[in-house]
Amino acid sequence: MITTDATGRCDALGLPAETRPVEINTRPSSDWDTTTNPGNGPESHPAEPTLATHQESGARGPAVDVGGKSGARGVGRPRLLDAYCGAGGATRGYQRAGFHVTGVDIAPQPRYCGDEFRQADAIEFIREHAHEFAAIHASPPCQASCALTKGTNKGRKHPQLIHETRKALNATRRPWVMENVQGSDLARWLTLCGEYFDLDVIRHRYFEISGFFVFQPEHIPHRGRVAGWRHGERYDGPYFAVYGDGGGKGTVAQWQAAMGIDWTDDSKELTEAIPPAYTEYVGSYLMAEIRSRAA
Q1: Is residue 1 domain-resident?
Q2: Backbone angles phi, psi at 228, to 5 degrees
Q3: CA distance 46 to 276
Q4: Interatomic CA distance for residues 181 and 178, integer angstroms
C-alpha cells in the first residue's frame, strides 16, 4: 500500500496526498524539430504538455516493445539502461524499484553502483543496444542549462545533447525517461523536488517521459532557505546546495545524507547526481507499466 504523511510528502515509493495527473504523449515526441514543430526547435523551449486526468485520457502512451528475454519477459528483474549514468544516483533508485540496471558513460565510473557498467558514448550505445533493455533512462549533461551557466558561468561552452538524445530514445520504441535541470529544453511532464521525499535538498528536476504515466505531486512549500553564503552574507536553512566547491554549502558527509547517497564520497560525483528517491518514484510507475504490458 502506498502511503503519505499529513504534509503530502511521499515515502520512498509513495504517491503524494494530492496528485495532478499528466497526460503523457500518446506517440513519441516530435523532438521539437523545426520541420515538424515550427518554432519549437532544439534552440527554443518546448511547449507545456497538455494536462488531463488519467481517467479522461485513458491513454497509456505509445505502442512500445518492452523487450524479450533480455527485457521484461526474461527471468528476474527487467533490464533498464541508465545513459550518462555517472556514479549512479538515478541507477540506485531504479534498482530499488526492482530493475536490473546497466549504466553507460563516456568516462570511467569506478564508484558506479549499478549491476553492470559500459564505458561508451551514450547516444551511440542507445542506438546500438536499446533492444537489449526493457526501458531507458537518460540524463544528458546539464551544465549548459543550469542557472550557474546562464548566470555566473555565462560564456563557458558545454555540450548540448538533449536534442540528439531524444531522437535516439524515440527511435527505440521502448518506454523512456529523460531527466535534466530546470531551464533545460525538456517537456515538463513531471517536476520533482527533494521536499516530496523529506530530503534536505530542493534540487528541482524535470522529467520528460514516453510510454507510461507518472503522477505529478502538488508542490510542497519549502521549509526555509538553502544554507550557505550569498553575496557576502551567511544564511542558515534546512537545505544544502549540492553543487560547486565553495560558499559554505556543507560537508561531503552532509551532502551524502541530504541526497540519500552513501556509496560515493566524491564531491563532483555528488554534484552531478540526482537523489535516488526521484527515480525510485518514477521507476515504480515504470515497473507497473512494464509488468502490465508483459502480462
Answers
A1: no
A2: 140, 180
A3: 26
A4: 11
